Amino acid sequence: MHLHFSPSMRSITISSSCNGSNNNGNGFVDLMKIKVAARHMSYRTFFHTILILAFLLPFVFILTAVVTLEGVNKCSSFDCLGRRFGPRLLGRVDDSGRMVRDFYKILDEVNSMEVPDGLKLPDSFGQLISEMNNNQYDARTFAIMLRAMMDKFERDINESKFSELMNKHFAASSIPKGIHCLSLRLTDEYSSNANARKQLPSPECLPLLSDNSYYHFILSTDNILAASVVVTSTIQSSLKPEKIVFHIITDKKTYAGMHSWFALNPASPAIIEVKGIHQFDWLTRENVPVLEVVENHNGIRDYYHGNPVSGTNLSATTLRDFASKLQARSPKYISLLNHIRIYLPELFPNLDKVVFLDDDVVIQRDLSPLWEIDLEGHVNGAVETCKGEDAWVMSKRFRNYLNFSHPLIAKHLDPEECAWAYGMNIFDLHAWRKTDIRETYHFWLKENLKSNMTMWKLGTLPPALIAFKGHVHHIDPSWHLLGLGYQIKTSIDDVEKAAVIHYNGQSKPWLPIGFEHLRPYWAKYVNYSNDFVRNCHILEP
Ligand SMILES: *[C@@H]1O[C@H](CO)[C@@H](O)[C@H](O)[C@H]1NC(C)=O
Ligand SMILES: *[C@@H]1O[C@H](CO)[C@@H](O)[C@H](O)[C@H]1NC(C)=O
Ligand SMILES: *[C@@H]1O[C@H](CO)[C@@H](O)[C@H](O)[C@H]1NC(C)=O
Ligand SMILES: *[C@@H]1O[C@H](CO)[C@@H](O)[C@H](O)[C@H]1NC(C)=O
Ligand SMILES: *[C@@H]1O[C@H](CO)[C@@H](O)[C@H](O)[C@H]1NC(C)=O
User: Fold this and answer.
1) Is CATH 3.90.550.10 correct for 176-535?
2) How many whole angstroms separate alpha carbon 325 and alpha carbon 207?
3) Closest CA relative to residue 65, chosen from 30, 31, 34
4) Which regions span the lipid bilayer (predicted)?
């Protein structure tokens, strides 16, 4: 922050300095240049302006303070000035020109010095003025105060950017009332309404669950509303909905509610199966040892439940780093529901090819051509995420996810390798069963635990990037558009053209912090005439 007063004192420039406090150096970015029109204002107007603007714009306060000083000539009596500023600030009033120069000198001097630690600052600029009026400061103290307050002001603004991100993070990790209500009421319905408990799918359809002539979709989520949107949008966009089988995996606590929803709102002609993770015999501790470790690891518990700001050096952290740290702390990254996709070949032993969907996607096009794509022997059909222009979402390489200062990572991986996206993947389970992807995944999870999570921060994508290395087939980017939960500037044109849109990022469409103009693409698949949705006041303004 740098103040510059023009020699005539007719204008003031406030700039942010890029290289030191050199008055005339290059690299200044002018923030504000204000012309002073002192002569046209009465003293009284000035004083009110100071009071009003002081609260809004500290910069203008300085301006007006200086202008007032310059207006010394206009003030005919000593009393007129003395009442407001006191003799200590003004120095010798008979030489106003010199006084203004002195004040300028002091400001300049103070500007390049360190503000003393522990300086007690007034709470507001209003208070500064009133203390000044009460004759408490000499010019130098006043200038230091002013400087310190402006620094503090700037720091507060910077910190508020971090707290804004943090508030968003907590908003994104908590469950909105409406969605919670939906889950509770549907769970209640499960115990009270026999229709909500009816078998899914009906017994005569059971063989279809492992019939490879059908299109099998797998969705793993504890969010019933999100699941309903994924299923509804898939079916409405499909050219052959009668050939669709949905396998919905959920956790134990959501199972009853999820089952009620799909029992009461059958997605016919598609087939729906709802399974809780507790119902898969294969998901035992012996088979999934690492997850047990992951979920119980103390360090991780601290990591997730600690305060993300404590221990973060804000002045050494960029907003973007902070945002990605917060994202890595999202509780969903330690849930088994999120890791479950690495066990698809074992969980669905009879299926050959499946599409795995995240719960924050919307399907806008028939997806059956995905099954026709020749994966050329690869396991995972995914879109690459390093070829776009957008730095937040589409320029991701291995180095963005993995710590290449770690010797093991550096030894085995290429930092420039293009990353790919989870969210909508076509998996060839048949080819997958011939690989050691799961073992590799486990190996790296364990190594990361051993290294105190220094290889990557938690998440399911980094170990998957390693485990699927050499097993990924890149599909056309128009299949899967990412980033709708990250940025407001997603192109509507792209959104409308994409087969699948993905609200990855914090601003989920079911949260109040979702982006309003992107929400309709999701919300149009919410059935607002459904009693449960209506009674839970979901997404009502
Ligand atoms: C506030 O942030 C800006 C840009 O991020 C930085 O240049 C400035 O030094 C920060 N100010 C303080 C007081 O931390
Ligand atoms: C924060 O980082 C800045 C810049 O790297 C450094 O000068 C400062 O000492 C750090 N503060 C703490 C508390 O570590
Ligand atoms: C991990 O952290 C623990 C305690 O914080 C420490 O004793 C151990 O040496 C660390 N291990 C590695 C590989 O850094
Ligand atoms: C990356 O790995 C190095 C070496 O193990 C470690 O010192 C560093 O703290 C790690 N960085 C992060 C962000 O964990
Ligand atoms: C919406 O819900 C109502 C009531 O449950 C149901 O009758 C209707 O068929 C549903 N509409 C769609 C498009 O699913």
Assistant:
1) yes
2) 45
3) 34
4) 45-69
**More confident: 540 or 2:** 540
Please tell me if the CB atom of residue 313 comes closer than 6 angstroms to any atom of ligand 1: no
Best residue among 114, 159, 315, 321 to mutate for probing ligand 2, ranked by most atoms within 8 Å of CB: 315
E strand intervals along 412-483: 424-428, 472-474, 480-481
Residue whose CA is at the smallest distance from ligand 5 atom 2: 530
Element (H, E) at 450: helix 437-450
Name the residue at shortest CA distance from atom 5 of ligand 3.
452
Ligand 2 centroid from CA 312, angstroms: 10
Ligand 5 pocket, CB under 6 A: 527, 529-530
- Which DSSP helix (H) or strand (E) runs through 537? none
Q: Which residue has the tokens 């105060």?
A: 145
Mean pLDDT of the region 94-105: 55
Residue ranges per domain, the chain?
Answer: 2-35, 43-94, 95-173, 176-535
pTM of the model: 0.69
Span from the CA of 262 to the centroid of ligand 5 (angstroms) = 12
CA distance 134 to 36: 27
pLDDT in tens, 24-43: 333 222 223 333 333 333 33
- Judge if the upstream peptide bond of residue 349 is cis by omega within 30 degrees of 0: no
